[in-house]
Structures are given as structure tokens and as C-alpha cells.
Amino acid sequence: MRRGVSSRYPKLLAVVLAVIASLLLVAPAGALKVGRKAPDFTLSAPGGQKVKLADLLGKGPVVIYTFIQALSAT
Fold it and tell me: What is the pLDDT of residues 15-36, one digit of tens each?
């Protein structure tokens, strides 16, 4: 008797469906224009530390650069 994927891997199926649902529910962020201020955000740094944009701005100008294309197939 053949069993479907959902009966063999119920936890895996639940995780996959949760990931798909979260990706569909996340709205894309609007792009910033050059020279506009970025909203404050916090990122995880090595060692479990948190880095906040506002803290960096207190030390001087900050340049935010992304290299998304380096992580994609294109």
C-alpha cells in the first residue's frame, strides 16, 4: 500500500507549508531613494551581539550596501 508524502513526513510538510505561507504573507519593502534616511533596524552580529543602526549613526555616517545578486543564481 502506497502512502502519500503527508502521511510519511507530517512534520516536514508542516514546516514547508509554514515557510511558504510566511513568504506569501511578507510584503516587499519599499526601496529607499538615494540620500533618504533608512528606518532604524537591528541586526545580529557575530558572537550573539545586536547592532542597531541608530548606534552606528551616533559614530558618524553609515553606508548600507547589499549584495543580493551574489547570493542568487543570476
Answer: 777 777 766 666 666 777 887 8
Of 57, 66, 62, 70, nearest in space to 29 by CA: 66
Q: Are 15 and 5 in contact (CB under 8 A)?
A: no
Q: Specify whether the backbone of 49 is left (phi greater than 0), alpha (psi in -120 to 50) or beta.
A: beta
Residue 57's φ and ψ, nearest 5 degrees, are -65, -25
Report the distance separating Cα 40 and Cα 7, nearest Å: 45
Contacts of 38 (CB under 8 A, 6+ apart): 32, 53, 64
Amino acid at 31: A
Alpha carbon distance 42, 50 (integer Å): 6
Q: Is 28 helix (H, G, I), strand (E, B) or coil?
A: coil
Structural domain spans, the chain? 5-71
